[in-house]
Hints:
By secondary structure, the chain is α/β, with parallel strands linked by helices. The protein folds into two domains: 2-119, Response regulator (Rossmann fold, 3-Layer(aba) Sandwich); 128-220, Winged helix-like DNA-binding domain superfamily/Winged helix DNA-binding domain (Arc Repressor Mutant, subunit A), CATH 1.10.10. The chain is built from eight helices and 14 strands. A five-stranded parallel beta sheet has the order 2-1-3-6-7, with helices on both faces. A four-stranded antiparallel beta sheet has the order 8-9-10-11, with no helix packed on it. A three-stranded antiparallel beta sheet has the order 12-14-13. The protein is elongated.
Amino acid sequence: MEQIMIVEDDKELNHGLCMALKADHRQIVSCPNIHSAKEQLLMGYPALVLLDVTLPDGSGLDLLGQIKKEHPFVPVILLTANDTDTDIVEGLERGADDYITKPFSLSVLRARVNTQLRKHSVPADENIFRTDRFSFDFSHMRFTVNGADVELSKTEQKLLHLLIENRGNTVNRNYLIDHIWSDPSVYIDESALSVTVKRLRDKLGVHDDIKTVYGIGYRWIV
């Protein structure tokens, strides 16, 4: 399930955005300020951020910088009442993927959001995830790192697929165990997951990119 974070202090506009973007396959997280947004980001990064530039506890551009530093592939659309060239250029130079000035049409906003989600999603028809470093083709079971093929076991492939599907969000240990080792008649020690994570990290060279969230599970943060 994809998650969209809305950071907007205007209660009516925030509510309107939540309703406009609501969908069965989507979770909407509403934040009224930078502080609450940072607390939410500690739990995992969303598929997309709608970010107001002017917030009661600071500039949204500073939060934009943090997001793009830690997770450059998360698309951010700025919401701004300032339509001068200087403000727009500053937002884009700090890494914003798009911007929209207030007042705006909700239908136009939905189209902009959907465009960014498509650009940054794993293509459903090809089941392929690509970045500058990685190419993971789950349909044909081919995995490369910096152009070099990497052999993954079936268990490692299942783990990688679950992490990529939920990238930016923490995946619970029990959920991973249940979906990787799905045969209920087979007893699986919890250490099996830790061992599989270690092997996957070693093979892909992603010791920092698969983050351990202690007491909860794991998160793919690329």
